[in-house]
């Protein structure tokens, strides 16, 4: 069983595996090693005390272990993996560059939005990009709502609002996700448009490798909390 788990773990694409593992370990570490006060985004401490790690840990912490943590990890794993195995398959460097773009933009916006943890916003960004690139997929939200994939980030924001949470984090993720989608997918295809987001060659040298022939991607049709299916073409 341990061998099977290890084999399945290393079947997860590298970026999804690294980010999901870091999130789980960082959140679990609060039980014994660290506290949220050592992780949250604090520009003052970053600049004056040189606590640079906060630029990263604010994206890795999802609160105490519980329903919210499990919900976020499931969404992170699912949509991060489907992006990496779908439109970013064979383009790991481009995927890492999207992570860097999203992280930098959220950090800049976080200076003004008074957001202490940016991980949930980052998940919403991933969901937004995936949903805009799969507009024909229909979603089923806990058996209550049926809608097209591009509405998914807004449904999640409404669900967060119903739970009494602030929607600032969701709006931040949607905004950054739309910025990436517009600059990467929309503007280059407009008359007079051009590609503005260029992946550095250093990232390509570091991350782009030949694809493993035994690699098994996660199928988008598999069920979960959110069921989805491709809309038939006429």
Q: What's the average pLDDT?
A: 86
What are the secondary-structure elements, in order, as H or E? HHHHHHHEEHHHE
Residue windows where pLDDT falls under 50 for at least 5 positions: 221-225, 227-234
- Across the major sheet, the strand order is 2-1-3
Number of helices: 10
Topology, number of strands: 3
Shape: globular
Structural class: mainly alpha
Descriptive labels:
234 residues, mainly alpha, three-stranded antiparallel beta sheet, 10 helices
What do you see in this structure?
- With 234 residues, the protein is mainly alpha-helical.
- The protein is 54% helix and 6% strand.
- Strands 2-1-3 form a three-stranded antiparallel beta sheet, with no helix packed on it.
- A hairpin with a 3-residue loop joins β1 (137-141) and β2.
- Residues 221-225 and 227-234 have low confidence and may be disordered.
């Amino acid at each position: 069983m341990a061998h099977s788990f290890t084999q399945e773990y290393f079947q997860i694409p590298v970026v999804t595996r690294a980010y999901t593992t870091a999130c789980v370990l960082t959140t679990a570490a609060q039980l014994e090693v660290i506290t949220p006060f050592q992780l949250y985004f604090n520009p003052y401490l970053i600049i004056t005390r040189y606590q640079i790690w906060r630029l990263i840990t604010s994206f890795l912490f999802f609160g105490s272990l519980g329903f919210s943590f499990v919900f976020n990890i499931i969404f992170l794993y699912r949509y991060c993996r489907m992006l990496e195995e779908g439109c970013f398959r064979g383009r790991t460097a481009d995927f890492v560059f999207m992570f860097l773009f999203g992280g930098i933009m959220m950090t800049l916006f976080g200076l003004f939005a008074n957001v202490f943890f940016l991980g949930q916003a980052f998940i919403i960004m991933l969901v937004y990009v995936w949903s805009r690139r799969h507009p024909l997929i229909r979603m089923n939200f806990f058996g209550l709502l049926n809608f097209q994939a591009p509405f998914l980030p807004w449904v999640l924001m409404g669900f967060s609002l119903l739970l009494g949470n602030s929607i600032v984090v969701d709006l931040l993720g949607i905004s950054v996700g739309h910025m990436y989608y517009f600059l990467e997918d929309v503007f280059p295809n407009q008359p007079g448009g051009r590609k503005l987001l260029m992946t550095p060659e250093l990232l390509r040298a570091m991350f782009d490798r030949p694809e493993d022939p035994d690699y098994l991607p996660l199928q988008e049709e598999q069920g979960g909390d959110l069921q989805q299916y491709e809309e038939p073409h006429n």
